[in-house]
Amino acid sequence: STGQTSNSVFPLNPHASHQMARDIQRIHDVLGEPLRLVLDLKSRRVPPRVWSRLIDNLRSRGLLIEGIGSFDMDELRVIGKGCSYPLTPILFFHSVGDLQ
């Protein structure tokens, strides 16, 4: 075994929950493609290294984390640098005039 899923470039975590892996596979089967997520970071109390590890862990279980969003560009950069694979940062704004 190569330690990789046939649909993912991310290695499987040997400690990953088999139930979570089965659920992710069921979602994949229903969608016909892997589940892709964009995470909206809300907590200011979670260190960037924890976010990086969480993202890598979710990816190792078969989820495709396409990007992360925050109001803090510096935080996004640090999290992205801590991830094993590239991650798309998405900068949010509280308000931009009348743009909704």
Describe the overall structure.
It contains 3 helices and 3 strands. Strand 2, helix 3 (73-82) and strand 3 (88-91) form a beta-alpha-beta unit. The protein has 100 residues and is α/β, with parallel strands linked by helices.
Descriptive key words:
alpha/beta; 3-stranded parallel β-sheet; 3 strands; 100 residues
In short:
By secondary structure, this protein is of the alpha/beta class. It has 3 helices and 3 strands, in the order αβαβαβ.
Annotate the secondary structure layout.
Elements lengths: L17 H14 L4 E5 L7 H13 L3 E7 L2 H10 L5 E4 L9
Parallel strand pairs: 1-2, 2-3
Helix pairs in contact: 2-3
Poorly predicted segments: none
Count of individual beta strands: 3
> Beta-strand level of the residues, as a percent range?
15-25%
The helix count comes to 3
Q: Describe the global form.
A: globular
**In angstroms, what separates the terminal alpha carbons?**
49 Å
